[in-house]
Design a protein that fits this description.
single chain; alpha+beta; 108 residues; three-stranded antiparallel sheet; 1 helix; elongated; 2 domains
Length: 108
């Protein structure tokens, strides 16, 4: 629906699914979403901005709180170890760079 000569508004419903195999397995059903969009009509063609939300929910089992908390804790530990090793590498690089610069200066 055109609001002005260059601006338009649209509403839409979309349905589909993705499959990991070459041939679709239609027993999985479709995922449905609805949304709205705005169009800006240019001489070359319309510029479109669309936003949608799912209408069908995913069928998943929620994780237990203790499981997700322990997963977060282990991820935090991995990140902490990574940052610690990153700082160590950075310090070693800085030391070797200083030594190289001092060698170059003393050689001249």
């Amino acid at each position: 629906m055109k609001v002005t000569e260059t601006i338009g508004l649209v509403g839409f419903v979309d349905a589909g699914n993705s499959f990991s195999s070459v041939y679709p397995d239609f027993s999985e059903g479709l995922k449905v979403g609805a949304g709205a969009g705005i169009r800006y009509f240019t001489p070359v063609g319309p510029l479109r901005l669309d936003v949608a939300v799912p209408l069908t929910r995913k069928r998943t089992t929620p994780a237990s709180p203790s499981m997700s908390a322990s997963a977060r804790r282990s991820d935090f530990e991995k990140l902490r170890r990574f940052r610690r090793s990153e700082r160590k590498i950075s310090r070693n690089f800085a030391k070797s760079s200083r030594k190289s610069i001092l060698r170059i200066i003393s050689a001249t």
